[in-house]
Structure formats: C-alpha cells, structure tokens
Amino acid sequence: MHRDFLPLLPPPPARIADIGAGTGRDAAALAARGHTVLAVEPVPELRALARSLHPSPSIHWLSDALPGLPRLDGEAGRLDAILLSAVWMHLPEPSRPPAMRRLHDLLAPGGRLFLTLRHGSPPEDRQMYDIPAHETVALAAQHGLRPLQHAKGIDHLARDHVHWSTLTFEKDHP
What we know:
Layout: E1 15-19, H1 25-32, E2 36-40, H2 44-53, E3 59-62, E4 79-84, H3 96-106, E5 107-119, H4 133-142, E6 145-154, E7 163-171
Parallel strand pairs: 1-2, 1-4, 2-3, 4-5
Antiparallel strand pairs: 5-7, 6-7
C-alpha cells in the first residue's frame, strides 16, 4: 500500500507513530519490519478491532487525536517517523497549522513525516477536504519540515474519481 514510503523509512528498530491507525494494518506492517509502533486511534471500536487483529508486543495502542495529540506529550522530540495515512484530509483548515506544529515537535531531528492526501469529491456523509499537495508542502515548510518526496498514485479501491498524493518530509537537524 505504501511502497513509495518504504525506501524512506528509518532502519529498524525505530520509534514510529501511526496517527489514525484505524484497524492497524500499517502499524502491524511497521512492527513486522522491526519497529516499535505507537498506534494512535481515537475510535474505541477500531482500537479494539485492531488489537484483536494484530496482537503484537511492538504495537502500543493509544486513544488520541490531532491537532493536539496530548497523550503523546512524553514523545516530544523522540519519534523517528510519523505516518498519517488517509488522515490529514479530515482536518479542517484552522486545525492544520497547529497539527503540523505538533507533528514537527514530536519528531526527532532527522525524523520523517509520511502523509497521504486523498483527492476527489468527498463522500457526502463524512467530514473530508480535498487539500492540494502544494498547500501541505508549504505548511510543512513553515513548520520546519523539508520535503523529500511527492508522488501521485491511483486509488487502491479502484474508485475512478479518487487519486492520492504521498508526501514525505524530514525535520532538519539543529
């Protein structure tokens, strides 16, 4: 699913946060590669399902959400990578700058942020925004995150009206 990100992942064992971990697919894949994963998911039902699907001592489940991620306070400056897969598009515009600041603060120097953006008409029954990649790149730069990669891809659910951008950023060393 995230083959564009794989060559840019830090070597194991790294501390990686999967923000909006859902049913745990990505957290499990990262743990299987030898990483310690903080799987952050605000929906209790999804966390419970994920724990049952992916029982791993390398995955630590937390209830938290952007923009603040207050339960991750002890992780400031300690994460080697953060993954936001199909998450950023749920944040309204006023929440994006503080969320980006928080992601920057959680990353260690040289840490990487991996982010996917959904493009296309959002479903009527969900709060979702079609955020241009260039807007996210500019916001990340304002918060000290340097772009490393921007790739475009198809929708893996074969929806003709949906496509994706994958963005990778790196926090500069002091």
